[in-house]
Design a protein that fits this description.
With 136 residues, the protein is of the alpha+beta class. It is built from five helices and seven strands.
Length: 136
C-alpha cells in the first residue's frame, strides 16, 4: 500500500547506492518542506513531489527495487495516491536524455513531452501529466 511519509533518513538509507546521481538533491531539505509530498511503498521505492506552484509539483522517482513493469505498477499506484489529493492538478518532470528507462517509464504512465531543455551539456525532456490525462 502506498503511503505518505516524512522519513527522509529511510529514503537516504534506501537510496545510498544512487546518491552519486543526486546533483543538488537534498532529501532532508525537500522532505521537511511541508509543501512537498513523499510517497513510499515501504519496499525501498519512493516518489517525491516537489511543490512548484499552486496545484503543480515536480516529480522525482527514486526506485531501489522496482524496474520495468514493476516500476510501471508502483508508479501508477503512487500517481493514483498523489492525484487523490484534491489540491493537486499536475505533475511535471525533467528527464535527462541518457536515462532511457525513465524516458520509457514516462511514456508508460501517460506523460506528454512539452519541450526539451539543455542544462550543463545535458539534454532534458520536460514532461507533463495532468489529473485529467491520468484519470482517462
Amino acid at each position: 500500500m502506498i503511503q505518505v511519509t516524512n522519513n527522509w533518513q529511510q529514503l537516504e538509507e534506501d537510496m545510498k547506492d544512487f546518491s552519486g546521481e543526486w546533483h543538488g538533491f537534498k532529501p532532508e531539505v525537500l522532505v521537511n518542506d511541508e509543501e512537498n509530498i513523499l510517497l513510499t511503498d515501504n519496499n525501498g521505492n519512493y516518489s517525491l513531489f516537489e511543490y512548484k506552484s499552486e496545484g503543480v509539483y515536480e516529480g522525482h522517482y527514486l526506485f531501489k527495487n522496482a524496474r520495468g513493469r514493476a516500476a510501471v505498477k508502483v508508479s501508477k499506484e503512487m500517481l493514483d495516491k498523489f492525484f487523490s489529493f484534491p489540491f493537486v492538478v499536475a505533475v511535471v518532470g525533467r528527464t535527462p536524455d541518457y536515462h532511457k528507462g525513465a524516458l520509457w517509464l514516462n511514456k508508460q504512465l501517460g506523460f506528454e513531452t512539452i519541450t526539451t531543455q539543455e542544462r550543463e551539456g545535458t539534454e532534458y525532456e520536460v514532461v507533463l501529466l495532468t489529473r485529467e490525462r491520468f484519470n482517462k
